[in-house]
Amino acid sequence: MGPLLRTENLTKSYGSFCALDNLTLSLEPGEVFGLLGPNGSGKTTALRLLMGFLRPTSGGAWIKEHDCWHDGVRARQHVAYLPGELRLYENMSGRQLIAFLCDVRGQTLAENLDDLAGRFDIDLELPIAQMSSGMKRKVALLQVLIPHTPLVIMDEPTNTLDPNMRDELLQQVRQARRRGQAVLFSSHVLTEVEQVCDRVGILQRGKLVHVQTMSSLREGRLVRAHFNHPADRLPPLPGLRVLSHVDNELTMEYLGDLPPLLHWLADQPLRELRLEPLGLTSIYHRYHGVQP
């Protein structure tokens, strides 16, 4: 069986402007994949292409081997989608909207709807027109989480949510993974991505410039060393990368066993040493922003 989702050289251009440039990736069942990048990097364009809302300029995308553009109806049968900008039927209550969307899918209301609504602290009987932006986001999240589709696509899902509700959403993403669902979402919040993703991809001006497995990243360290005087030449250790070296201060990221690095540091004129989990920040800042 092939991947649940795959893209091959997926490209979208508007005249001379390329919004998404040759995106190639795949997503397996039970995997959470995060798309990272600032506004304008191509995240939303990629998601809209996967949903069949945009026609690719070249390349293609497939969900369960259904072409997302040419066979979009069948492709979307396997997807629950949360857009970044909501447009809900405001003449309905939250419950009526979710019931309507379930009916469109040929499903009945899930038995756990009220339990899930309680977890998100949302009154489903309230007309959507009377809801705040945060409450509307919660209703939209319920209609994505309830169907248990093979693939869930979310565009900035935690926008307008308070910290408690963000934590609840991340917990629901973990449960989706345990059920074997795949989750693809874009986010600006690196800490959220670190908590739930198995892999992340970083987009820069429409190009996928880096893919990182979180399991290997969690083994890495950010090393900050301040010496009394210049240190010896750095050891030739695999996975060691210098981020900055100013005067007697050295900042490195290290993906490898710690003992060899600590052995070298023990022989250096150290004044101060800090070891921190590597995290996504330093990797993200290679492509967007300053080094840590």
The gist of it:
The protein is α/β, with parallel strands linked by helices. It is built from 10 helices and 14 strands. The strands form 3 sheets. A 6-stranded mixed β-sheet has the order 6-7-8-3-9-10, sandwiched between helices. Strands 2-1-4-5 form a 4-stranded antiparallel β-sheet. A 4-stranded antiparallel β-sheet has the order 12-13-11-14, covered by helices on one side.
Describe this structure in words.
With 292 residues, the chain is of the alpha/beta class. The chain folds into 2 domains: 5-216, Rossmann fold; 219-287, Alpha-Beta Plaits, CATH 3.30.70. 30% of the residues lie in helices and 31% in strands. α3 runs parallel beside α5. The longest helix has 16 residues, at 163-178. The chain is elongated and about 70 Å long. The two termini are 42 Å apart.
What's the CATH topology name of the largest domain? Answer: Rossmann fold
Classify the secondary structure makeup into a structural class. alpha/beta
Oligomer: single chain
- Strand arrangement, largest sheet? 6-7-8-3-9-10
By CATH reckoning, the class of the largest domain would read Alpha Beta
Order of helices and strands: EEEHEEHEHHHEHEHEEHEEEHEH
Overall 3D form: elongated
Name the beta content range. 25-35%
Helix content: 25-40%
